[in-house]
Design a protein that fits this description.
It is a single chain. With 292 residues, this protein is an all-alpha fold. The protein folds into three domains: 5-51; 59-135, MazG-like (Helix Hairpins), CATH 1.10.287.1080; 187-212 and 223-292, no CATH class. It is 60% helix and 3% strand. It has a two-stranded antiparallel sheet. α5 runs antiparallel to α6 and α10 (195-208) runs parallel beside α12 (246-269). The protein is globular.
């Protein structure tokens, strides 16, 4: 009986025992060859078993692998034709479906829609990796992890902030340090937001520089979201009856407020309140032409 040792991927294996007769037939070349072939077959079978052993992975690793396969040269033709721009509408749709499931769906609905949004993120990251944009999903994850840790120094550092107000002020301070190149409180506000969300953002930023009096009473008193919702619905119904576009009307008005904010920042810049804009950064309306 002979035990034959080999090495497969750094693991020493012992092949199954091979019986070799010591008689006349075993001493000739044919008998020895048959014995060696039998040994190699046993070793090969064990090596094959090890090569197909499952590797440690998580479902998200498998999803990343699925996206990589779909976008490979021999993957899905439709997927391979997509770009960040062509996929943007799907990301918006999936995000709204997630919001809808959060507000009115079940736990299973939320889980499914979270998965759809996750898939969109992985798809965009793999597109970037395939097209040589200099990053992939691991780079996205690393940058986000570093940013979140940096913005939570009260958890991962020694910042003494503990109350909600202190933490919010600290968060804004860290963001301001990160985005030192921004020249306006409106920089970073996506002007493509739905009109109501955009209005809320711009009003908040206007209040942060004292352009709007945050302590002033509301022009239309409402005490609950139910009352507010009914009022907004009545306004939309009235605009529709008059043939007006409520979304466009509000967006136009909000853009006017945004122009006032930038103009106020420009006026205050000489006093050192806001960073100074160069003359070529201002358009004829007195607003900054810097990229949003």
């Amino acid at each position: 009986m002979v035990l034959v040792a080999t090495d497969v991927a750094g693991v020493t294996l012992l092949a199954a025992p091979v019986r070799v007769r010591v008689g006349r037939s075993a001493r000739n070349d044919g008998g020895l060859a048959r014995a060696q072939w039998s040994s190699r077959r046993s070793i090969g079978a064990m090596a094959d078993l090890f090569s197909h052993a499952p590797t440690a992975s998580t479902p998200i690793d498998e999803l990343i692998g699925t996206v990589q396969v779909l976008l490979a040269d021999d993957g899905c033709p439709w997927d391979r034709q997509q770009t960040h721009e062509s996929l943007a509408k799907y990301l918006i749709e999936e995000t709204y479906e997630l919001v809808d499931s959060i507000e009115a769906g079940t736990t299973e609905d939320v889980k499914e829609e979270l998965g759809d949004v996750l898939y969109q993120l992985l798809f965009h990251a793999q597109l970037a990796a395939n097209s040589g944009e200099g990053y992939g999903i691991q780079d996205v994850a690393a940058a986000t992890n570093e940013k979140m840790r940096r913005r939570h120094p009260h958890v991962f550092g020694d910042d003494p902030s503990r109350t909600t107000e202190e933490i919010e002020a600290m968060w804004q301070r860290v963001k301001a340090e990160e985005k030192a190149e921004r020249r306006s409180v409106l920089d970073g506000v996506p002007m493509g937001l739905p009109a109501l969300a955009l209005a809320d953002k711009v009003i908040g930023r206007a209040g942060s520089i004292g352009l709007l009096d945050a302590s002033a009473g509301s022009a239309i008193p409402v005490s609950t979201e139910e009352e507010l919702g009914a009022l907004l619905l009545a306004i939309v119904a009235s605009s529709r009856a008059a043939g007006l576009d409520a979304e466009r009307a509000l967006r136009t008005t909000v853009r006017g407020l945004a122009a006032e904010v930038r103009s106020a920042e420009w006026s205050a810049s000489d006093a050192g309140v806001i960073g100074v804009f160069d003359d070529d950064e201002m358009d004829e309306s007195g607003t900054s032409s810097a990229r949003e």
